Each structure stands twice: as structure tokens, then as C-alpha cells.
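Hi all, posting the design record for the shared folder.

TITLE: backbone redesign
STEP: 1 of 1
STRUCTURE INPUT:
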């Protein structure tokens, strides 16, 4: 069975490289921030050694881990985390999320529809 969050080899290498440069950091957390013209943006932040990760789910690939707070799981389920270099030489993490229902023109923000609540028959 595959993981609900995929981390490519390039992203795993970049995550390990970033963590190797930082002291007192145990991982990266992927969250969703309300911003932009489409409503949401992806945010990666360092997890400090003393931070509580009990409310997060951990997804690993080749020794690189990304933590996602459970409150964002529904929005990020099925996402692939990649690390790309564009034609201008700019490198960045890229998120391929099958739950996106729209993205702004510049690609900085996205939107997802909340799942419909089940009704009792």
C-alpha cells in the first residue's frame, strides 16, 4: 500500500540537506496558510526539538520525513511533494495535490472544496 503523501527522491534529498544544516530541529511540517487570491498556500516550517508533534501525521521516504497536522489531512491527502528547478534556475518545493479545485494565475495559492457533510437518510 502506498502512503497518502508521496515524497519524491529530489524532495527527500532536499529535506535531508536542509535538516543537516539546522541545529535543534527534528523535521519539517507542511501546513496550509490562508492567503492569496485562491485562499490557501502551502507552508513548510522547521520543527524544533521541543515541539509537540502528537497532533501530526508523519510521512517518510528514504529517511526524509514531513509532518502534517491532522487538521489538514483531508486537504492534503494524495499530495506529492517534489523539489523542482524551473527554466530560470529557481529551485523550490512543488506540491501536486489532487484535491485542488483551483489555483491562482501566479500559482502561489490554491483552493479546495470542503467535503460535503453526510446527511442521514
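Okay, here is what came back for every position:
SEQUENCE:
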Amino acid at each position: 500500500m502506498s502512503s497518502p503523501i508521496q515524497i519524491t527522491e529530489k524532495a527527500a534529498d532536499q529535506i535531508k540537506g536542509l535538516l543537516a544544516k539546522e541545529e535543534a530541529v527534528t523535521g519539517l511540517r507542511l501546513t496550509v496558510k490562508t492567503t492569496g487570491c485562491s485562499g490557501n498556500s502551502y507552508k513548510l516550517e522547521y520543527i524544533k526539538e521541543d515541539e509537540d508533534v502528537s497532533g501530526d501525521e508523519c510521512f517518510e521516504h528514504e529517511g526524509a520525513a514531513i509532518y502534517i497536522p491532522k487538521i489538514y489531512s483531508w486537504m492534503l491527502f494524495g499530495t506529492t511533494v517534489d523539489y523542482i528547478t524551473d527554466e530560470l534556475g529557481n529551485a523550490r518545493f512543488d506540491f501536486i495535490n489532487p484535491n485542488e479545485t483551483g489555483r491562482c494565475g501566479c500559482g502561489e495559492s490554491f483552493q479546495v472544496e470542503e467535503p460535503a457533510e453526510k446527511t442521514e437518510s
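COMMENT: The longest strand covers residues 25-35.
Let me know if anyone wants the other runs.
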